[in-house]
């Protein structure tokens, strides 16, 4: 049995109510629910929330909300691992024979059903704990620098100052769309960024964190430019 768990708490601070705020014509969370349904791989699609309105919107778009997330897992300090472990434990308590659990973020408007299917396939191609979306940094991180308190700059890796970009290794970062995982890995909260995790590479133009109003506007511009905003 394979389930999707969409974490969506009600207390978002930086973008209030962002999980259900209209994004290009439909609630943000609806895009993740639609992708999960279109993938055809899930036996159940569950929204983990503490919020009545999010619960109503999730159910209206085809997801289930069979439990309410405890308050201890709905504050600013609750991590994704703990939330998915809670949902996994709940599902097992119902007697569900879980094979894989997919954490699918509610604010991932560019997530695609075919990527969800590919992630599941890659999880099953070896002894992996997780398979998750990732993309490369637009610039080599080894050439990165920071501003000093005095107003100057200093490199994080000064020994790489003369290195050519093409000679530096590719660096990846979390694309923040979904994470397929084995039930045992979620319950044990096994490290996500480790040797038993496999990255599913996405192009940079389909990756956008949405943590600020600027992020939101940029994501809508990208969605509109692709001509798929109402889908």
Automatic annotation (TrEMBL):
<dbReference type="InterPro" id="IPR050793">
    <property type="entry name" value="CMP-NeuNAc_synthase"/>
</dbReference>
<dbReference type="InterPro" id="IPR020039">
    <property type="entry name" value="PseF"/>
</dbReference>
<dbReference type="InterPro" id="IPR029044">
    <property type="entry name" value="Nucleotide-diphossugar_trans"/>
</dbReference>
<keyword id="KW-0808">Transferase</keyword>
<keyword id="KW-0548">Nucleotidyltransferase</keyword>
<protein>
    <submittedName>
        <fullName>N-acylneuraminate cytidylyltransferase</fullName>
    </submittedName>
</protein>
<dbReference type="Pfam" id="PF02348">
    <property type="entry name" value="CTP_transf_3"/>
</dbReference>
<dbReference type="GO" id="GO:0008781">
    <property type="term" value="F:N-acylneuraminate cytidylyltransferase activity"/>
</dbReference>
<dbReference type="InterPro" id="IPR003329">
    <property type="entry name" value="Cytidylyl_trans"/>
</dbReference>
